[in-house]
């Protein structure tokens, strides 16, 4: 899968809260991975990891336990993007998975 096929974007605005898609543990919170800006990675049961990139602020730290729906960041323009956006990605056992149909409707 390509990066585009394994990620989702939606209409967002700057400073919109970003919520965890599932309960898990924060395994990375920082900006050292080029092209993602401020990035948060959350590890979930069953070999799943979710990524939240281009954040304005990260509201969780490595090692934090997060609940489904908990605010973990704020939408921004970090990582060289020109407009506010959230790059969301899902991986299962380190392989990208298309999130379409994987997320429960609110």
What is the molecular shape? globular
**% residues in beta strands:** 35-45%
Estimated radius of gyration: 12 Å
What is the succession of H and E elements? EEEEEEEEE
- Would you identify the regions where 5 or more consecutive residues have pLDDT less than 50? 1-7
Strand element count: 9
Structural class: mainly beta
User: Approximately how much helix is present in the residues?
Assistant: under 10%
Number of helices: 0
Biggest pleated-sheet summary: 9 strands, antiparallel
> What is the first-to-last residue Cα distance?
27 Å
Task: Determine the mean pLDDT.
Answer: 87
Please characterize this protein's 3D structure.
This protein has 106 residues and is mainly β. It is 0% helix and 43% strand. Strands 1, 2, 3, 4, 5, 6, 7, 8 and 9 form a 9-stranded antiparallel beta sheet that branches. A hairpin with a 2-residue loop joins strand 8 (87-92) and strand 9 (95-97). It starts with 6 loop residues before the first strand and ends in a 9-residue tail after the last strand.
Detail the topology: elements first, then pairings.
Blueprint: E1 7-8, E2 17-19, E3 24-30, E4 38-44, E5 48-58, E6 65-66, E7 71-75, E8 87-92, E9 95-97
Antiparallel strand pairs: 1-8, 2-7, 3-4, 3-6, 4-5, 5-7, 5-8, 8-9
């Amino acid at each position: 899968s390509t990066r585009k096929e394994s990620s989702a974007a939606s209409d967002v605005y700057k400073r919109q809260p970003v919520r965890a898609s599932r309960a898990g543990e924060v395994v990375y919170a920082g900006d050292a991975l080029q092209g993602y800006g401020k990035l948060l990675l959350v590890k979930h049961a069953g070999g799943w990891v979710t990524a939240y990139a281009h954040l304005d602020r990260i509201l969780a730290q490595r090692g934090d336990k997060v609940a489904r729906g908990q605010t973990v960041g704020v939408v921004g323009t970090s990582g060289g993007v020109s407009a506010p956006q959230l790059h969301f990605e899902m991986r299962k056992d380190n392989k990208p998975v298309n999130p379409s149909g994987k997320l429960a409707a609110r």
